[in-house]
Design a protein that fits this description.
The chain contains 8 helices and 11 strands. With about 220 residues, it is α+β, with helices and mostly antiparallel strands. The strands form 3 sheets. A 4-stranded antiparallel beta sheet has the order 1-8-3-6. A 4-stranded antiparallel beta sheet has the order 2-7-4-5. β10 (about 200) and β11 (about 205) form a beta hairpin. α5 (about 145-160) packs across α8 (about 210-219) and α6 packs across α7 (about 180-195). The longest helix has 27 residues, at about 120-145. It is elongated. The termini are far apart.
């Protein structure tokens, strides 16, 4: 499918605006594990995911990561073009979690169209509000939810994303997603294993009792 089918307000653009986007559009195939945007000084452009999976995260002064949100097919990333939002300076890093195909709309092209098009401006504001909602939800989780519940929720989310109860993921990766330390995550997973919720092996976590994880997450 082509870009026009993925961009949700394509039919609300004028013919001239459509032509400007198509004339500047870049399509990329990016390998898993590639950093494609790094901080507010890096104005990559708007990213529209055709297929694959992206992760947006922030990095603390101590070098700890925490995932803000993830992007899947048809999702648009605004913070990769933070230069068009002067009042917002997010030091967000975006990397590919899977081999990914995406389109890049140059920031200056999108900004010029946004300034003249109410539908594009409204869509951008809605998208920004959604992302801030994601970040606020994350802050609530970090501040008020215990780590065991957050790990349980993460494992259930991964199982849903991957469509399997056998997750090829390291303890370090989970720690990076949750803003924790690998050693803490390892201790938590061993506790889960002792409780019969998971089975651990090198580079693999098997969910053995999803219902028990869900009960823990809902407590």
């Amino acid at each position: 499918m082509d870009f026009q089918s993925y961009f949700p307000i394509w039919n609300k653009l004028t013919a001239s605006q459509q032509e400007r986007i198509l004339g500047s559009l870049m399509e990329r195939k990016i390998s898993k594990g590639t950093v494609i945007h790094n901080g507010s000084m890096d104005c990559t452009g708007l990213l529209l995911v055709k297929s694959g999976q992206l992760r947006a995260y922030i990095l603390s002064d101590e070098g700890r990561e925490i995932t803000l949100y993830r992007l899947f097919d048809r999702d648009m990333c605004l913070f990769s073009a933070s230069c068009i939002m002067r009042s917002i300076q997010f030091e967000v890093t975006i990397e590919t979690e899977k081999d990914t195909e995406l389109w890049i709309i140059p920031a200056e092209i999108y900004q010029s169209i946004m300034e003249e098009s109410a539908p594009v401006s409204n869509y951008t504001n809605e998208l920004m509000a959604t992302r801030f909602s994601d970040v606020m939800w994350l802050m609530e989780q970090v501040m008020w939810k215990s780590l065991d519940k957050r790990v349980a929720a993460f494992l259930l989310e991964e199982m849903s994303i991957e469509g399997t109860d056998q997750l090829k993921i390291t303890h370090e990766t989970i720690a990076n997603h949750l803003g924790s330390h690998r050693e803490v995550i390892t201790r938590m997973l061993r506790y889960f294993q002792n409780e019969g919720m998971v089975k651990l092996s090198r580079g693999m976590i098997e969910i053995t009792d999803a219902e028990k994880l869900e009960e823990l997450n809902d407590m």
